Amino acid sequence: MVAEKKCGECGRPDAEYVKLVSSDEQEFYIKRELAVLSGTIKSMLSGRYEEDESNVVYFQYIPSHVLHIVCQYLSYKHDFITGSTQMPEFNIHPKMALELFMAANFFDC
């Protein structure tokens, strides 16, 4: 998802990457163009919130195992959003279905 050399650039307002921090303090670096595919993250980075300046978004109630899958989904969605082929299934483990459904609703993605 991210090249390590890009991670230090998140602190700039025009950064290519944003940092997403889970409730258990795991950090995920993702390209801004992928992050804004989430309506919630897009709003947070829109200039009205502190996150727009720092490019760091904290999710107090989203654990890392869920945020990791959300990041994967945003990358998956980006890859197929403009494609002319049908989007293949994004498989998830059935035990995580409810948790991911709630996260998808929160993230608006």
From TrEMBL:
GO terms for biological process: ubiquitin-dependent protein catabolic process. It is found in: Nucleus. Pfam families: Skp1_POZ (PF03931). InterPro entries: ELC1, SKP1-like, SKP1/BTB/POZ_sf, Skp1_comp_POZ. Residues 17-78 form the SKP1 component POZ domain. One of its GO terms (cellular component) is nucleus. Keywords: Nucleus. Belongs to the SKP1 family. This is Elongin-C.
